[in-house]
Amino acid sequence: MNQNKNVNRRIVLASRPDGKPVLDNFRLETGDIPQPDDGQLLLRTIYLSLDPYMRGRMNDAPSYSPPVELNAVMVGGTVSRVEASRHPDFSPGDWVLNQGGWQDYALANAGEVRKLQGDILQHPSWALGVLGMPGFTAYMGLMDIGQPRAGETLVVAAASGAVGAVVGQVAKLKGCRVVGVAGGEEKCRYVTQTLGFDVCIDHRAPDFAHRLAQACPGGIDIYFENVGGAVFDAVLPLLNTSARIPLCGLIANYNIKDLSAGLDRLPLLTGIILRKRIRMQGFIITQDYGHRHQEFIEAMEPWVAEGKVRMREDLVEELENAPRAFIGLLEGKNFGKLVIRVGGDTL
Amino acid sequence: MNQNKNVNRRIVLASRPDGKPVLDNFRLETGDIPQPDDGQLLLRTIYLSLDPYMRGRMNDAPSYSPPVELNAVMVGGTVSRVEASRHPDFSPGDWVLNQGGWQDYALANAGEVRKLQGDILQHPSWALGVLGMPGFTAYMGLMDIGQPRAGETLVVAAASGAVGAVVGQVAKLKGCRVVGVAGGEEKCRYVTQTLGFDVCIDHRAPDFAHRLAQACPGGIDIYFENVGGAVFDAVLPLLNTSARIPLCGLIANYNIKDLSAGLDRLPLLTGIILRKRIRMQGFIITQDYGHRHQEFIEAMEPWVAEGKVRMREDLVEELENAPRAFIGLLEGKNFGKLVIRVGGDTL
């Protein structure tokens, strides 16, 4: 079944994952299309963004945002069109950025959405990527916490992904030596040849840590952390004095059920942070930097328009493919910003 | 043997500690008193500062400063008087702050010392404490990284010690609720009754973690980290969103030879830093904030003069007692800023 005007298809959280999510954790349902109240909009989802943070929302554990309730629609940013408007600032057909979730139709108060206008309408889905939350995350974490200086070495993982690609390209614009980490030769080739990173290393290589050390002969000044796990372990001994670690995600850790037995490396990490005078700082883009969105847009829009910052999209057709695509995202199977095309531009 | 004008007593690093330092790691030697070259000063040590960072210098491992060589004089900040001057800006009898080390006499270039003048000459040893490196560490770590705001809760360990006492008192001046941690009832009484902390908890209490949680009903906004170990473990679950952790020392970890077996809590710590958007930052006062020394002096001198910031000194007589006192410092046996009186004010 495709998107149509008679039913609302939605994907709900059927059960909480025990470690890695599986298809049974999701359920496709259909229901009525809701009706907007005064001041509300009825929005039809065109593009749905899939992002690693959603894994955290599937757990029933305290985090920076409340969990998705069982049997509730999965959350997610969407680019949508106005189907019906009961607010004077919006008309049917307008494009908006909203938090529509994994479904065809959503209601929103007019104050909760952002109207998309101007150049971005040539590529509306970019509002979910390079000009949206991932690009904003990359830009603010790099600029405010990473504080790149010309000649410094930056490392970022998931380098062909939505955040990593922007981090590296902006760091290049700031004069850094940029080393990416990605999964597989094809992604690495793209990262160096298309995105212009100096080096890209395949984290699947058995001698990955050795290759990373070779690629950073002067050590690492900025490690933009979005994966955790083995990449972080390889980065740790290479960190320079006064290194900065903006921390926006730990995708490698999201499916961990229990801490692994072995040596307790917590004192190792705090000791390195002390001796090397490192700044490590977690951030959540909307909570920490929502007030600086305009600054991001003013910097990024020209770079994108001039081709200085590029973004590859991994566009998957049809809402019902979202669960499988999301599971693949956590395994690094996507290549570029993962977006689901839920509906046609016109219907 | 007391300090005299015929020999230079010095305490050298005889061997490197294997875990906790022992007396055999030190050796008292005597030698000739050195002669200053042009531009140099001969300085006689009056007060020697003993500080936890010295434990790191005893290891032959890379850290923020090079290790003390075997058979070399132990390093340390000193308040000294000029015995002989071959520089026009200094005269015999002048008081200076220098890095004289654990010995009676030291040479220094005039540019390496700071002349002590004005009110501080009423208490010259304070240049090693509240108005010296520990006070500077407390002030900059708290103000620049901790960024205290009125109504927030701050926790600091070693609360009766040289750094912790200043951190807590300045945080009180900034309107924070201040919870100290110290070893034993006597120290805790001093911390609340004399220093004016809101609460002080004995880390030796079997239910320490529970008491800390009770003392912080609104969680912890700033944890000024100078000890590590069990205190850090108890603090971790209490950290609030957007908490700051200035990290200037890890005294509980300094004698650790190997990481302990158990669960690897490194991903636990990074996960908390991410989810709670925490800033954790190591710093070494001279390297990171040397250029802001004047700002510290201008804030702290009036507070000390007005009795708003107090400092207890633990004054130990005689250079030969320095090794035993230093070993005690690492075990929390001192009560206040540990200073060795090496020589008399007049000789």
From TrEMBL, chains A, B:
<dbReference type="GO" id="GO:0016628">
    <property type="term" value="F:oxidoreductase activity, acting on the CH-CH group of donors, NAD or NADP as acceptor"/>
</dbReference>
<protein>
    <recommendedName>
        <fullName>Enoyl reductase (ER) domain-containing protein</fullName>
    </recommendedName>
</protein>
<dbReference type="InterPro" id="IPR036291">
    <property type="entry name" value="NAD(P)-bd_dom_sf"/>
</dbReference>
<dbReference type="InterPro" id="IPR013149">
    <property type="entry name" value="ADH-like_C"/>
</dbReference>
<dbReference type="InterPro" id="IPR041694">
    <property type="entry name" value="ADH_N_2"/>
</dbReference>
<feature type="domain" description="Enoyl reductase (ER)">
    <location>
        <begin position="21"/>
        <end position="340"/>
    </location>
</feature>
<dbReference type="InterPro" id="IPR011032">
    <property type="entry name" value="GroES-like_sf"/>
</dbReference>
<keyword id="KW-0560">Oxidoreductase</keyword>
<dbReference type="Pfam" id="PF16884">
    <property type="entry name" value="ADH_N_2"/>
</dbReference>
<dbReference type="Pfam" id="PF00107">
    <property type="entry name" value="ADH_zinc_N"/>
</dbReference>
<dbReference type="InterPro" id="IPR020843">
    <property type="entry name" value="ER"/>
</dbReference>
<dbReference type="InterPro" id="IPR045010">
    <property type="entry name" value="MDR_fam"/>
</dbReference>
